Amino acid sequence: MQSNQLPFIAVFIAATLRIGTPLILTSLGGVVNEKSGVTNIGLDGIMIMGAFFAVVGTQYSGSPLIGIASGLIGGLITSLIFGFLSITLKADQIIAGTAINTLAMALPSLLLWMLFKRQGQSDGVKQIAYSEGVRNFFSKIPGGQFFLELNYFVFLAFFLTFLLWFMINKTRWGLRLRAVGEHPRAADTLGINVIRSRYVAVAISGLLASLGGISLSIVSNNLYRDGMVNGRGFIALAAMIFGNWSPVGAMLASLLFGASEVLQIKSQALGLKIPMEVYYILPYLLTMIAISVSGRKSQAPAALGKPYEKGER
């Protein structure tokens, strides 16, 4: 059975899940970051680094699994650089995030020429796809054709959403994370290491945002291309705010933004007589509307964006 035999609504939902996956993963990183009291607008840059180094790792090893590990390491190092600037040096977090984004726009472009002798995009590499056994399994079960339209990272994004929800709301680690983001001085008084907790949160955030970038480069595609992240890190931040700093809320908001992008792609099939320019700006317009609408009702962590100085009163 071919994908075009699926009902249009099923194709639309599957595409929304695929396109929403990088946003879900990155917005989850934003949730962890900001629950600890750290604002990181550099998630877009971390996605870029994850996407780029995943391709580099795959190119030189021939293994997408090593590519995933390379992308995670690249994103982790980038996030720790941000952590050093904003947590240790106590630089303005917005400026530190902007510096990360600037670095991520420049470094891959330079390395593309050094490693691939090309400008603008890498060579094609081995892509992460379903194994033959998985494809055969889905082909034999009811509704399996729908799952064939997805990929491993879609399932990973949903798993991590509910795992993170449980970790934040039902574990001691989550309680400490929220305490550090709400009342860091009180948390310090109770023996919680605020600086270490924030570094751990920044590292986890970097790994999640890296997965978002990896899902673009060697899952949805088989190469890295300049501009492929295309501001998705900022849209993920908007999804996090729209979702009220909740993993499940961020996931649902990410899917809403994903659906708007699918609508742009599928508009001709729907027969909608609307100028294409409207569809191109729809995800970004929706981002601005979401932030405007949710800004009044959302409750950010009380210490968000405020550097912590131990012993300061």
Q: Can you describe this structure?
A:
With 313 residues, this protein is an all-alpha fold. It is 73% helix and 0% strand. It is globular, with a radius of gyration of 20 Å.
Concise structural overview:
By secondary structure, the protein is an all-alpha fold.
Q: What profile does the largest beta sheet have?
A: none
- The SSE order reads HHHHHHHHHHHHH
Principal-axes geometry comes out as globular
Our Rg estimate from Cα atoms comes to: 20 Å
Low-confidence stretches: none
What is the residue-averaged pLDDT?
90
Helical fraction: over 70%
| Separation of the first and last Cα atoms | 67 Å
* Strand percentage: under 5%
How many beta-strand runs?
A: 0
Question: What count of helical segments does DSSP give?
Answer: 13
Structural class: mainly alpha
Short descriptors:
globular; mainly alpha; 313 residues; 73% helix
Task: Set down the secondary structure blueprint.
Layout (H helix, E strand, L loop, with lengths): L7 H28 L7 H19 L2 H25 L4 H24 L15 H9 L3 H5 L3 H19 L1 H11 L1 H6 L4 H26 L12 H11 L4 H24 L5 H20 L18
Helix pairs in contact: 1-7, 1-10, 1-11, 1-12, 2-3, 2-4, 2-10, 2-11, 3-4, 3-10, 7-8, 11-12, 11-13, 12-13
